[in-house]
Design a protein that fits this description.
Blueprint: E1 16-20, E2 23-26, E3 31-34, H1 37-40, H2 49-59, H3 72-83, E4 89-93, H4 96-113, E5 121-125, H5 134-139, H6 143-146, E6 156-159, H7 164-170, E7 175-180, E8 183-184, E9 190-191, H8 194-207, E10 210-214, E11 238-241, E12 252-256, H9 277-290, H10 293-316, E13 321-327, E14 330-335, H11 339-348, E15 351-352, E16 354-356, E17 360-363, H12 371-393
Parallel strand pairs: 3-15, 5-6, 5-7, 7-10, 10-11
Antiparallel strand pairs: 1-2, 2-3, 4-12, 8-9, 11-12, 13-14, 14-17, 16-17
The structure holds pyridoxal-5'-phosphate.
Family: Belongs to the class-III pyridoxal-phosphate-dependent aminotransferase family. ArgD subfamily.
Main location: cytoplasm
Subcellular location: Cytoplasm
Length: 394
Amino acid sequence: MIPAVLPTYSRAPLHFVKGEGTWLIEEDGRRFLDLGAGIAVNALGHAHPALVAALTEQAQKVWHLSNLYEIPQQEELARRLVDASFADTCFFTNSGTEACELAVKMARKYWYEKGQPERVEILTFDGAFHGRSSAAIAAAPTEKMVKGFGPLLPGFKVMKWGDWEALEAAVSGTTAAIMIEPVQGEGGIRPIPDADLKALRALCDKTGTLLILDEVQCGIARTGRLFAHEWAGVTPDIMMVAKGIGGGFPLGAVLASEEAASGMVAGTHGSTYGGNPLGCAVGIEVIKHVTDPAFLAEVNRKSALLRQKLEGLVAAHPDVFESVRGLGLMIGLKCRASNADIVKAGYANEVITVPAADNVLRLLPPLTITDDEIAEAITRLDAAATDVEQALAK
Ligand SMILES: Cc1ncc(COP(=O)(O)O)c(C=O)c1O
């Protein structure tokens, strides 16, 4: 019999009843060290007092207002994001997928209004993940995502990363935008080198193509800068964010330059819940924290510490791990053993990690993780790796 919850996930048999900072507490009392943070969502950890206060304070005033009215919390959050980024304007969504939808629509509408309605094509890259809507799976059509869900939306072309000749040849009079994650998340924590991001920007400038960056997973201080593209010193025309921006409250956004957003006038787009007062009240608190230079400096210090300890872990378990990669606190351990087995061994040792493509183990801890918790993470990952080694030796 089909479960009451549609069985699209194969879930681990864990029942977490409480979260505290970097810890998740199982109903049987076990304390798990959470190096997944809901896949880069709980940027400030679980139940951060400032977020709890913002949410409960707003909950006592007004939960929801239609976007037919002005929403002061939305205006404040938009102002903070605009002030802290390349963007001139911002639209709030409920998720990364919904941000992807708007990014695509915005790029196409831009060219339509410029009198070039034939510029509809979006170029994307292999290994990417942009969400699960019809547009998002057409943008990143891995077999798992698209099999049985055809016909796929037209207007997307997937390029092989690194093949510049093919990319330059593909940018034509029908190209609207190039869309890319500065650090691929689901694809296996693959940072795009700064020089390549610069070259991509230059190609877009030369051809008038819009650059869309998907910072749903790598944005909001995850890499040690507010947005990952800042490391390369380039700016996009349109950017998608979600996950960390709500710290656990479903919230996303599309940020854009005034020029790129110029087609999006009243009546062209909307969302019932996007930018509602509860979500924005939490988002304001998150942004206050993650834009603090001292907070960002700590993320960088702790990522260097974790990275150094992980290099030792990899060296100690050469049959289990191959290498460490990533940026900031968005870290991938390329595995020699099965990443799924290591995740499972992690559960047995009360540490949570997340698998990714390319046999990578993802570590996306709360950005508030402490030095002691980093040491504890290594102890638990070491125990998990030892269990996997012992199983391999059998
Ligand atoms: C880079 C990227 N884009 C888009 C999405 C989709 O976001 P959501 O699951 O909030 O719809 C994700 C989710 O993992 C993501 O990592």
